[in-house]
Amino acid sequence: MTATQAVDAEFTAFVATHAGSLRHVAWLLTGGRETAEDLVQDALLKTWLHWRRIDTQTAWAYTRRVMVNLATDRWRRRRYETVPVEMGDWRPDAAADASFAAADDRAFIVRQLAHLTARERAIVVLRYYADLPEAEVAEEVGVSVGTVKSTCSRALARLRSRGDAAEATRSLS
Hints:
By secondary structure, the chain is an all-alpha fold. 71% of the residues lie in helices and 0% in strands.
């Protein structure tokens, strides 16, 4: 096996292992299946272009950071558009689905996330779905830890102020 084939095999294994989780994070960040799939593809392309320089132990975090950056760029370009919420019959794969077993209605969650700003949404998704500590969320989003804390607090308060979301967010604090 040549060095190029070994690198290809390593990247293919990474994609096979993390594709479901990446799709789920992208879906939570974008609110739409097609947009999430595009986001994952764009992030994997950028990851592939730098694969030889990426430590395989941190490749998942690298790719997740690329997705957050790409999603933020898209939000900035469409600042005044609302995030589409279209679920159809699509659901995340079984591994990603299991992590959301406590939530009965995934469409409800995406609808609630759609009411947040781009930064709030990224911080809430990384903090509570990806279960990252505040310091890592701050690093990935490119803000201070204090900004993560205050933004997360405000985002959850906004969700709680919506009557239908109050019960779902009560356990997050």
